[in-house]
Amino acid sequence: MNPWMLYLVWPLIKFLIAFVIVQVIVAAMNWIERRVLGLIQARLGPNRVGPWGLLQIVADPIKFLLKEDIVPSSAEKIAYFLGPMLPLVPAFIVFCLIPFGPPPTFAVTHTNVGLLLILALTSTGVYGIILGGWASNNKYSLMGGLRSAAQMVSYEVPFGLSIVGVLMLCGSLDLVHIINYQAHHVWNVFPQLIAAFIFFVSMNAENNRTPFDLPEAESELVAGYHTEYSAMKFAFFMLAEYSAMLVNCCLMVSLFLGGWTLAIGGYGLTTATLKSMGFMGGLLGTVIFVVKVMTFMMIYIWFRATFPRFRFDQLMDLGWKWMIPLALINIFVTGIVVLAAPEMIINGSVVPVGETILAVAGAATVALTLFLIMKPRAHAPKVIHASRVSEA
Hints:
By secondary structure, this protein is mainly α. The protein has helices spanning about 5-40, 55-65, 75-80, 85-95, 115-120, 125-135, 140-170, 175-185, 195-205, 220, 230-255, 270-275, 280-305, 310-340, 355-375, 385-390, and strands at about 260-265, 265-270, 345, 350.
């Protein structure tokens, strides 16, 4: 094939298709979130524009385009305009590196350090939030930007550390290899249950989603870092947030839940099985991947409707005192188990002993956690108020 077609034209076409699909999903998630929040909170969501409010996803961008674009007179103009762009660009570029189905057709690019590039790109999103908060020349916006800087730097550490155990098991930074490894062994969520939990909590914090929405905190900061943004610049911040949510859900599925495969131990819908089915097999793999991703997007919404916001000291304590030590312990234990219990051949089959031990330990951890949660608690002692004591 012509090198121009192989390395430029086809990747560009595939990226544009993926980009359009991602934007459709982002628009749909905006409507789904508002409807689901309304259902959970016993109120009506959007229901006026079109049947069931479906045309709300068309009305919103029209509204943003037609609204007056107000720029504060004392803002740093260049930095103010760059703020919404900086988180948006890397969130779009990352979709070039995420395989949505069996390659090469359903992956824009395939590189052996794809995961490293994704982490490098996604970590730059915080700069736009900090810049937007500072450039607005508003103390509430500045406070939101500083909160975001502290929060995203704090949770970037456990976010990255939680992936190390997966890399130790799979031995590659290539997402395609990691997904194929899980199809022929076991999904990493079992031997790396603690890492999956840390990754899941950290990705919520990275996206400033409830209960980690301190940088916005409407009740305290009047929307925080984007207080002074209106019209399309405000829409860019929201678009970047939803795109980043989608990226993290894709990573969660690829790293811990087998990606586009439905196989364990080489049995089921592996990449080879899907490829043998031709183009329809690729579409089936993509559907499996999207269903898994959308499940985690729905969990984002469920969290927003359920949990109250952390205090800032609680947020920082969780990151530095619990998540980072737990991630380091997980790396230490994974390394010891993998080295002490390598793969063994039993009855002609390769048995990953270390992964089995880690999976059993993860299951025991879940069982213990559920037991402690469900365990009946002793009744709290009756509180006697000082006023009543004085009356007595």
